[in-house]
Amino acid sequence: MKPRVKLTNATLISIKSDSEDKVKQALYATFAEDSKNGKKGEALFTTKVMEVIGLEYRTFGADFYTLDAEPKDFEVNVFEFNLMHECMYSPDDLLELRDMLPASC
After folding, report:
1. Which of helix, strand or coil describes residue 69?
2. What is the distance between the alpha carbons of residues 83 and 94, in angstroms, rounded to a whole number?
3. Are the CB atoms for 10 and 71 separated by under 8 Å?
4. Which domain does 32 fall in, by range?
5. What is the pLDDT at residue 49?
């Protein structure tokens, strides 16, 4: 089993899609300490969340993450999530951009 990576300032992102029945979720967080995956304070987007047990999250890539607190909830559409992921925007960054995004996105 892979070691658990400690995360802080986590947000559970729910991705709405009209073409899929199931809502996918991913985590956005920062590393709480240096690890082989990243340096303390760097941002992280996980792959699809597969299992949640308390504050422990397992993702599609079989990575394990331990959060230091319950994550905030944030809902986005597919376009917004792709924009966040490609540009490494935080949920707060996206909230600032939402007013400028086309309504059809």
Report:
1. coil
2. 9
3. yes
4. 5-100
5. 94
- In the chain, where does DSSP find H-type helix? 78-87, 91-98
Helix (H) / strand (E) element for 38: namely: none
Confidence of residue 1 (pLDDT cuts 50, 70, 90): low
DSSP 77: E
Q: What is the pLDDT of residue 3?
A: 76
Identify whether 83 is part of a domain.
yes
DSSP β-ladder status, 4-16 and 64-67: parallel
The four Cα atoms 84, 88, 91, 92 give a dihedral, to 10 degrees, of -120
Gap between the Cα atoms of 28 and 26, Å rounded: 7
- Per-residue tokens: 52: 């949640």
Output phi, psi for 80, to 5 deg.
-65, -40
Q: What are 63-96's pLDDT values in tens digits?
A: 899 999 999 999 998 889 989 999 999 999 999 9
The verdict on residue 105 lying in a domain is no
Q: For the chain, how many structural domains are there in total? A: 1
